[in-house]
Amino acid sequence: xxxxxxxxxxxxxxxxxxxxxxxxxxxxxxxxxxxxxxxxxxxxxxxxxxxxx
Amino acid sequence: xxxxxxxxxxxxxxxxxxxxxxxxxxxxxxxxxxxxxxxxxxxxxxxxxxxxxxxxxxxxxxxxxxxxxxxxxxxxxxxxxxxxxxxxxxxxxxxxxxxxxxxxxxxxxxxxxxxxxxxxxxxxxxxxxxxxxxxxxxxxxxxxxxxxxxxxxxxxxxxxxxxxxxxxxxxxxxxxxxxxxxxxxxxxxxxxxxxxxxxxxxxxxxxxxxxxxxxxxxxxxxxxxxxxxxxxxxxxxxxxxxxxxxxxxxxxxxxxxxxxxxxxxxxxxxxxxxxxxxxxxxxxxxxxxxxxxxxxxxxxxxxxxxxxxxxxxxxxxxxxxxxxxxxxxxxxxxxxxxxxxxxxxxxxxxxxxxxxxxxxxxxxxxxxxxxxxxxxxxxxxxxxxxxxxxxxxxxxxxxxxxxxxxxxxxxxxxxxxxxxxxxxxxxxxxxxxxxxxxxxxxxxxxxxxxxxxxxxxxxxxxxxxxxxxxxxxxxxxxxxxxxxxxxxxxxxxxxxxxxxxxxxxxxxxxxxxxxxxxxxxxxxxxxxxxxxxxxxxxxxxxxxxxxxxxxxxxxxxxxxxxxxxxxxxxxxxxxxxxxxxxxxxxxxxxxxxxxxxxxxxxxxxxxxxxxxxxxxxxxxxxxxxxxxxxxxxxxxxxxxxxxxxxxxxxxxxxxxxxxxxxxxxxxxxxxxxxxxxxxxxxxxxxxxxxxxxxxxxxxxxxxxxxxxxxxxxxxxxxxxxxxxxxxxxxxxxxxxxxxxxxxx
Lengths: 53, 744
Fold this sequence. Notes:
heterodimer, A: mainly alpha, 2 helices, elongated, B: alpha+beta, 7-stranded mixed β-sheet, 6-stranded antiparallel β-sheet
C-alpha cells in the first residue's frame, strides 16, 4: 500500500508530462500539415534547408 | 481542369498531376496591387500568405519551395500541402509581392491572396480545441480505466482502504478532465434547452453529469460502485466522432473557399489622369471607368462606353454562342469579353437588376433547405423523451417497491448510462464522415452531412446544358474535310483571337507568317498570309453565296477561292453520355433544361439519350419547374454551373455543380464535382445509398442494444464493469459498421 502511495502519483506525473508535451507540439503547429510533413521526408535535399521557423 | 491547350498551357509538373489553374482566362495578380495583403513585421521582414492552385503532390511543393527560395531576400517559403497555403517571408528591397506571384506563375501554379475570414478562424480554433479535449479525455480514460480494472480484478481481495483510495484518485482525474473536455456537449445541450429544444447532447450531458455526481456521492460514502470510467469513456468516444466530423467539414469548407479565392478577379481601372491601375474587383465602385481587355472576364456589372465586341454570355444566360454588344449596352459580371478591348463604366446594382433578382431567388430557396430535419435529430426527438421517462419510471417504481432512495437512484442513473447515447451519437456521424471522406478522395465535395441524406432520397436529376453537360467550349467537327494548308491558315489566324471558335482552332498547328490581322466583332478575323487575304468568320464576312448553312458553322475564305465551311459544336463532356447511362441504370429520371436555343438543346438531348428536354428556358422558368417537381412529390437534384441555374439549384431538393461554375452556383450547390468529369455523380449516388443503409443498420443496432440493456438496468443488474463493456462494445460495432463503406 505504501508503494502505491508514491507509485500512482509518479505514474500520473509521467502521463501529465506526455499530455503537456502534446499540447506544446500542438502550439508549435506540428499537427497543421500532416500530408505535407509526410511527403517532406521523401525529398532529397542537396541544398541546405532554408532557415526560419 | 486537366486538358492541355497547347497555346495556353504552363510547363509540366514532375509528377504529371499538375492542373491548369482555372483562372487562365483572367491571369491573376501579375500587376495586381498586393500591398493590402502583405504583413510587415518589425526589423523589416514582410510576409504574405497565398492560396496555391494546381499543386497536388509533394513534387509540386518541392518545386514551389525551391523555386521561391532561389529568389533574393527570401527568408522563408513554406507550403502547407493539407491546406494548399503558402507562407512566404522576405526582407530587403530586391523583390516584392508581385515577383513572388510571377515566379509561381512561371512555375505553372496559380496564386491568390489568402484572406482569413471570421468563420474560418473560428472553425480552425474549434478544431484545435477538440483535439486538445480529446488529448485530455484520452489521458483521463487511460488512467481511470487503469484504476478501474485494478478494482474489478481485485474484487474480493482488495482491501476497502485501497478500494476507496483508488476511487478518490479516479475522482481527481475524472472530474477536471470532464469539466474541460465535456464543454462541447454541455454548451450544445444548454443552448438547445434554453431554446426549449432537445438534441442528442442533452441525454449525453445528463448521463455524464449524473454519473459523476453519483460517483462522487458513492466515493464520499465509501460505497463500492463508481462510474467515472463510463463517464470519461463516453466523453472520449463522442469527442472523437465530433472531431472527425469537424475536420471533414473544415476540409470541404477549405476546398470550397479555395475555389472561390481563385475566382477573385482583378480589374483595370482608368484613373482621372487617363493612366491605368490594377485593383481588386472588390475595390471597384459604381461610376469607375474600367478597361476590359479581350479575353478577360468582366469583374462587375457595367455599361459599355466605348468599343464593340462579342461577349460570351453563357454564365448568365446559358447560351453557347457569343453575342455582340456596343456602346450603351449593359453587361453582367462574370461574362467574358472576347474580341475587342472595351471601355466600360461600372454600374450600381439596382434593386431590380438581374444579379440581385437571382440572389433573392437563391436566398428564398436556401431557407426551405434549412427546414430539412436530419436523421440524427429525428432519432433524438424520439429517443430523448423515451429514455428520460423510462429512467423516471424506474426511479419511482423502485421507491414504490420499497427500496431506499440510494438504490432507486442507482437504478435510474444506470438506465441513463446504459442506454448509451454513445452508439446513437456515433451512429450517424461515423457513417457520414467515412462517406464524405470516400467522396473527397474521388473529387466530390459534399457540403454537409444532410446533403448526403438528401442525395440518398433523390429520384430524378435535372441537368443544365452549357458548361455542365458540355464543356462550354467549341470543337471543330470537320477537320478531316480540310487540307492541312487550309487548316493551317485557319489556325494561324485563330491564334490572334480569344473567341470560342478561334480557341477551338488553337489545338491545330498554324505557324505561317501573318500581317494585318484584324478582328471585327460579330463578323470575324482577317489577315494576310503568304500574300493572300484570308478571312475566317460568318457567312457574310467571307462572302459565301452558299445557302446551305449548318448550325454552328463558320467560313474560311483564302484569296478568291470558294469559302469552305467549318463546323463547330459545343461538345458534351467526355464522360457525359456514360454518366447519364449510369444514372439511368441507377433508376433516376433525367431531364435537360437549357437556356440555349431549342434546336441546339434538342440535339444535345438526343446525343446524350435524354428523353425529356426543354430549350430557351429562363432562370425563373427553371426555378418554377423545380418548384413544380417538388410540389408533385418528386425529389429532384439540379446540376448547373451558371448564374442562371442558381435559383433552380436553390429550389431543388439537392444540387450539384462543377468546380468551374460561377461563384453563386457553387455556393448554392450541395455537391461540387472537381475536375472535368461528371462521373463523380453516379458514384456520389451510390455512396449516399450505401451510407443510408449503414445509418439504418447502425440505428437499428442501437435500438436492439437498448432493448436488451434497459431491462438489465431497470432491475439493477448493471454494475460499472458491464456499463463500460456495453459502451465500448456498442460504439466499436457502430464504428466498424461505418467503416465497411471505406472499402469499395
